[in-house]
Amino acid sequence: MKFTKYLLIATALIPFTLSAPSSADTPTITYSQGQYLAQAPDWSRITWDNLPPLQQAGYLSIPENLISVFGYDPSRSWSAGQKVDSVVMLGDADDAFKMSNFSLKSISALVVPTKELTLKDFGLMQWQTPASLVKAIPNLGNLSVKQVPPIAALLSRNGVQSRQRISQILRSNPQAANLALGKLDLSKYAIESVPELTKTPLNKFKSWQQSYITQVPGLNQVPFSKMPQPIDSDLGVVGVASTVFGSSEHGEARVGANYFISGSVKRGDTTTPVACSSGKECSYLELGDFAGSKGALYGKRWASGSSQQVKGGYGFLAAVNGGLEPTGRLVYGSGFKVALTGVNESTGTADFGLFFRICARPPFMPKTCTPYFIGPVPWIGVKENNLVIVGTGQ
């Protein structure tokens, strides 16, 4: 069965119109190497919450008849100026950061809650059912109904009155077992009203993948360096930002992909260099290398994602956004792609942005991801003769 023709997406592939925050808005650490300086991200202070807002609007729409393929609904829309943590779902970036290994308790050990939490604060509770909760927290099945107030209220509203254990009721009343807790006013129930809830890893809950990051209390405040799979905070591979070339530059047939470090990301989540198309606009940042002309990065080009779109994504979600993403690199892993978003020859500066994607791992099927098209999120810029972090491309 072919799915791609059923996937609808719209996002504005136009010049970025919002003013980009300066690098001072992103926590950085200054490194020096001889005469060169680098502004590197301080991942111990960068969180989902303090990333700059998205610069473009977009949406993904999955038809009802295909949602069962995913096991949840990854559809969503977003606006320019919206925060990333309200757009990215847990399933999108779980391979990169393993956020689903967190429990509310382990998050609270890193980020102290600012208020008494209710079940409403834990967004994924709205689509949990008595059956899914017992599957996630097996010990609940051994408790009587009255020991778990929200389950008791839900069953009572549907005419189920019993002093039996929860597991017994669910076996004898499968219809009640699949009632959604979202039918209740969850703000009336403390987070502790479901025993062991806070100790349970997020990935034990039904359709955890469709929870936005902001729907998990405290998660958007956790530094990227403290994720279950922390982001690589080392400088890694760096080059010298030698010269920026503006929109008057065009692709040349003689300048092949081996001259570029920017490109596309497909299955395997590695950067595949892609040359600018001959005759088409191609602004870029030319790199130097510490080793001089003999260095691997000497003369290489990082093309602008504002002028070059490349094929990206894999699986049937690869058709989203026309199958295109801005050219760029996986500098810090697969959680997001870094793209050059603009150059200014007169000031000798280059701007960068982060782009995110939507991923799903349907049951019994390989992982599938859209191209990196959600963005840009303004990132740390560079000046000529400063260092630029290029990473390994993975």
Describe this structure in words.
It is a single chain. By secondary structure, the chain is α+β, with helices and mostly antiparallel strands. 42% of the residues are buried. The strands form seven sheets. The protein has a four-stranded antiparallel sheet with strand order 10-9-6-19, with no helix packed on it. Strand 15 (359-360) and strand 16 form a beta hairpin. It has helices spanning 64-70, 94-97, 104-108, 130-136, 149-157, 166-172, 174-177, and strands at 8-11, 28-33, 36-41, 58-61, 76-78, 238-245, 263-265, 271-273, 284-288, 301-303, 309-311, 324-326, 337-344, 349-356, 359-360, 368-369, 374-378, 382-383, 387-389. The chain starts with 7 loop residues before the first strand and ends in a 5-residue tail after the last strand. The chain has seven helices and 19 strands.
Q: Mind summarizing the main beta sheet?
A: 4 strands, antiparallel
Which stretches are poorly predicted, pLDDT < 50 over at least 5 residues? 1-24
| Helical run tally | 7
Estimated structural class:
alpha+beta
Radius of gyration: 24 Å
- Determine the oligomeric state from the structure: single chain
Q: Let me know the number of strands.
A: 19
Order of SSEs? EEEEHEHHHHHHEEEEEEEEEEEEEE
Shape: elongated
Strand content: 15-25%
* Fraction of residues in helix: 10-25%
Mean of residue pLDDT values: 91
Strand order, sheet with most strands: 10-9-6-19
Roughly how many Å apart are the termini?
A: 31 Å
